Amino acid sequence: MILIFMDIALVPTIMLTVAFFFILAHDLKAFVSILAKYTTRIGEQHRNEAGQLIYYTNLLRNKYVVRNTAFPTVEDVSKVLPKPIVTVTEASTIDMNQPSTSTQSQVQQVTKTLPHQPISVGKISVIQAFALDQDAYDYFYAKQIVLFQRHLSDTTDKLYDFYFTVVKICAAVGNLMIILVVMVTLYPTTIPFLDRLHSNAESASMTVFFVLFFYCGEFLAECNLHLRMAAYNSGWYKCTNRTRRAVIIFMTRNQSMNYFTIFSIFRLEYDLMVRAFKGAYSFFNIVITMSASSKVG
């Protein structure tokens, strides 16, 4: 009866847990692919599907503004007296009545105040600011890349923190499954066929859970290398030294695979999974050999 109850409650729970984790992990992988596509566009002018020049204001939500065709060049922009630019904190403005060289330096000062939040100013002001200084836009775009990657890292950590509790529960239940499987292997005739079928189903579901968990952990850990390669293949070398430093810091943060660790000891990787299966295979071979030798004796 205990095995029947475990079959009714445990197996569906494990399967649902595996399904949700698998879906969430692939969603994160999809966002990483989107970020990699954005990263390859560092140092380039950005255009929409219609071929219009655009400036991204929030990469995470794919928000951008289209440059007004009334300002085709920087020289034309400097001749116009548009509205002032207000930062996110509304603590400073740019006086567009100043000469263009002064305006460009003020635009650079504004972009320094926008490392942690998307721009929340009018479309015209954003267009005028970045049209006056493409280097300032490149630097702001690179910082948006870093913020996007930080958001994905935080989401991955939350996902692992949630499922770490599930892993501990499954590890405890897995020990009971090992004991049941050993009993079924040593004394197959003393356990009813239905109970043996239940124990095999639960053991198989537990195995599937750990295999998919390790599989998802491996390809999520590879996301860092994917982003680093995307940054390396971008046009970062065309930017100013300030933007280059931001991109180099981004590549440095993603130079190694970010594995999730279990109990701060075991890394969630293929190598650990293969070693665990080899150990389990050797253990059951020893149990079967001892059982066969005891019957012969």
TrEMBL record:
Q: Which InterPro entries match?
A: 7tm6_olfct_rcpt (IPR004117)
Q: Which Pfam families match?
A: 7tm_6
Q: Which topology term describes how it sits in the membrane?
A: Multi-pass membrane protein
List locations, semicolon-separated. Cell membrane
Q: Mind telling me which GO cellular component terms the entry cites?
A: plasma membrane
Keywords annotated in UniProt: Cell membrane, Membrane, Olfaction, Receptor, Sensory transduction, Transducer, Transmembrane, Transmembrane helix
Q: Which GO terms describe its biological process?
A: signal transduction
- Membrane-crossing residues? 6-25, 162-187, 207-225, 246-266
Indicate what this protein is called per its UniProt record. Answer: Uncharacterized protein
Which species does this protein come from?
Cacopsylla melanoneura
